[in-house]
Design goal:
alpha+beta; Aminopeptidase; 3 helices; globular
Length: 151
Amino acid sequence: MIDWQWLSYEALSRDQLYAILKLRQDVFIIEQNCVYGDIDHLDQSSWHLCGWRREDGQLLAYLRVVQPGIKHIEPSIGRVITAQAGRGLGLGRQLMQQALQQLDEIYPGADNRISAQHHLSEFYASFGYRPVSEPYDEDGILHIDMLRSGR
């Protein structure tokens, strides 16, 4: 069972922030063998959606939503991640459903954007995202910008 938390940067505890940064490092940098600057000064302007395993408090799923006007005109989802221990359980789909529900409540009627790893574009399309760029290389991984209409 997963406990979902939607937190501002200010509301994150030190231990929660540490767990987030550790998970992002483990998957995006080590597992995907991609050296990039994860600490990008956007966390402070973001909402953080965390999926904690109820039994032991381990962070199994995470994403952030950068507020509109900071990175893009619209709110943007990024750092979408499922821990290795949580894969195959449908947590990625639950994570996105939770995020879109929150976005619809906080920014009703607003479009939202994601810079998706290209191989996951069909997954994001299943939530109503459509490509709005050509594929491009970002830190050695093919990405594509996608937009979801809030209307």
